[in-house]
Write a structure and sequence with these properties.
Structural class: alpha/beta
Strand order of the largest sheet: 4-3-2-1-5-6-7
Bound molecules: magnesium ion
Order of helices and strands: EHEHEHEHEHEHEHEHHHHEEEHHHHHH
Helix content: 40-55%
Number of helices: 17
């Protein structure tokens, strides 16, 4: 069992819940990194006494120095700081819960330092899946999924033979706009999109849930994590988010993992694997739910989902393009520069327009990501 953890993205939704899990089980927190929130980071440091603190946004470094004065932590900034924490000797496991493509290099750095990873940064696998899985295999580094669906699949695979797996059922809540037509979606605002029915999450992933981009990213993530062909993944909309995903074996037995929609459960499983200890969450009452529903996704209305599946099948840099275009488009939507439907249109247009090249090194990822973001910026500027 792990005794200590370093957390990238400690002030975000996953990071704060991971700290609750660490405190509950006496895991020492050896390092913390946040993107911009200096005061919350310093507050966490006062409580947890880590060895290192990092602020990813370098312009906030002097603010961090002020806020963390006298705490005795080594203070770091930027990507170099994130990577230094990723390979910190003192931690048994790295929790990577930063948002976006920025999480890839710290993941690769941790793997090269032979550090086990609890992975909540899905863009790591979406953009750099081939690099990450190859490096993990070469270094013998385990990757424990934190994403609730992938944790569910990982849990359902325990004690069974991987070669007898037939397919997986990846569940989707459907987000706040399930059942809506394209016409209805046209007028949806940032506030509408941020109102998720089941999960409380950061704004980027909440918008991704509304467009179903999140499920598309998870489709790509699942292919890498579990070495699956595209036709081995069935996406099913399950509005209650109680069945977190399931696996189907050759004998047509379906094994699913259920629980209340609370990220502390998958976070704890990733940090304490293979232990199952009391978790600071509510028990699941199936009779309180009464009914669980399952439906097909609407691939035409939610074009981000279709775009991701297409990008995954194309391979090479195509998933990087889809992800980079989406990150830029979501930022523009949150800044109220574009409408909701435009996100999917821009992701699809980027895939239609930008060239696909093989992906063999980190720089290939960076180049394709940059091109996708530039493409979206040009389209928005008109
Ligand atoms: Mg998920």
């Amino acid at each position: 069992m792990m005794n200590s953890v370093a957390i990238l993205g400690s002030t975000g939704s996953i990071g704060t819940q991971a700290i609750a899990v660490a405190l509950k089980h006496g895991l020492r927190v050896t390092a913390l990194a946040a993107n911009t929130r200096v005061d919350e980071l310093a507050e966490q440091a006062r409580l947890l006494k880590p060895d290192m603190l990092c602020i990813a946004d370098e312009t906030r470094y002097s603010a961090l120095k002020e806020a963390a004065a006298g705490l005795g932590c080594r203070l770091l900034a930027g990507m170099d700081g994130l990577c230094e924490i990723a390979q910190q000797q003192k931690s048994d496991i790295l929790l990577n819960s930063v948002v976006g493509m920025v999480g890839l290099l710290p993941t690769l750095t941790a793997i090269n330092a032979k550090k086990p990873i609890a992975l909540a940064n899905k863009e790591t696998l979406v953009a750099g899946g081939a690099l990450v899985m190859n490096a993990a295999a070469k270094n013998g580094v385990p990757i424990f999924p934190v994403d609730s669906e992938h944790s569910a699949i990982f849990q359902c695979l325990q004690g069974n033979r991987r070669e007898q797996l037939k397919k997986i059922i990846l569940t989707a809540s459907g987000g706040p706009f399930f059942g809506k037509t394209k016409e209805e979606l046209r007028s949806m605002t940032v506030e509408d999109a941020l109102r998720h029915p089941n999960w409380s999450m950061g704004s980027k992933i909440t918008i991704d849930s509304a467009t179903l981009m999140n499920k598309g990213l998870e489709f790509i993530e699942a292919r890498w994590l579990f070495d699956l062909a595209p036709d081995q993944i069935e996406i099913v909309v399950h509005r209650q988010s109680v069945l977190h995903s399931a696996v189907v074996y050759q004998d047509e037995s379906v094994i699913g993992q259920m629980g209340v929609p609370d990220m502390k459960i998958p976070i704890q499983y990733a940090l304490l694997y293979p232990e199952r200890l009391p978790c600071p969450t509510k028990p699941l009452s199936l009779t309180d739910y009464g009914t669980l529903t399952f439906e097909k996704p609407d691939y035409e209305t939610f074009e981000c989902l279709t775009a991701c599946i297409r990008a995954s099948m194309t391979g090479g840099t195509a998933p990087v393009t889809a992800n980079g275009a989406n990150e830029a488009a979501v930022a523009a939507f949150l800044a109220k520069k574009i409408g909701f439907l435009r996100i999917g249109e821009l992701v699809t247009a980027a895939l239609d327009t930008l060239p696909v090249t093989p992906l063999t090194c980190y720089n290939d990822v960076v180049r394709a990501d940059r091109a996708a973001r530039d493409f979206v910026a040009e389209q928005i500027a008109g």
